[in-house]
Amino acid sequence: MAGRTDAGVHARGQVAHLDVPGEIWDGVVGVALRRLNKLLPPDIRLRAIDLAPPGFDARFSALSRRYSYRVCDDQSHADPLRRRDTLWYRAPLDEALMNEAAASCVGEHDFAAFCRRRPGASTVRELLRLDWQRTEPGVLTGTFIADAFCHNMVRALTGALLSVGEGARPPGWVAEVLAAGVRDPAVRVALPHPLCLEEVRYPRDEDLATRAILTRRVRA
Question: What pLDDT digit, counting tens, does each position of 103-146 carry?
């Protein structure tokens, strides 16, 4: 799979690959999508299935992943029908302050301060985009794009930025936590259900294998 999200996180743009014998694939072309969807629970749907190009790896060939995080900070606009994908926040948020703090995280950094470490794994990532926008009245949506994400990284960054947005912390605090390189107990990990994997981007077919090799490198 392209991304291994925390329990409770949603995914609209998940990508997976599976190795099967050629004769099995030849026998199910045209009916695999329908048959697999009949077997899956109603909260999981396959949108497309096809033969992968040579060198494709759903996880390691990816160029970037895009996540969204949806927050309602005005209870008069809290939609009960969106309660499973929206954080109902206790205080109004200042997106300008949140974006000021978020700017310090864009680029390649060691995100150890915002990750749950795994033995032998690097916490260096390249964050390509991080910003917050009012997408509808009373609703803020955060957009996170990176080449890859560490465990808990988006939710920890979100928790820190929410503290800035409500005025509990100054914008420069996020950069200080990032530079310190260690988990700060003041950073609250945001709840998982408003987080959604929206899109996974891949290079041209001829570059898939090279990208997979590059992704597997150990970054210092």
Answer: 999 999 999 999 987 777 789 999 999 999 999 999 999 999 99
Write out the two tokens for 73: 């900070």
Could you tell me if residue 5 is inside a domain?
no
Asked if residue 39 and residue 18 are part of one domain, the reply reads yes
Are 147 and 64 in contact by the 8 Å Cβ rule? The answer is yes
- Active-site residues, by number, are 6
Are residues 22 and 220 in contact, defined by beta-carbon separation less than 8 angstroms? Answer: no
Residues 143-163 as b/e (b if ≥16 CB within 10 A, e otherwise) read bbbbbbbbbbbbbbbbbbbbb
Q: Which residue has the tokens 């150990």?
A: 218
- Helices 153-165 & 172-180 angle (0-180, nearest 10): 150
Pairing between β-strand 64-72 and β-strand 87-88 as defined by DSSP bridges: parallel
pTM over 0.85: yes
Instruction: Say yes or no: 162 and 210 in one domain.
Output: no
Tokens standing for residue 125: 């990532």
Tens of pLDDT, residues 43-95? 999 999 998 998 899 999 999 999 999 999 999 999 999 999 999 999 999 99
DSSP code for 78: -
Domain containing residue 114: 64-200
CA atoms within 13 A on the CB side of 121: 14
pLDDT, residue 24, reads 84
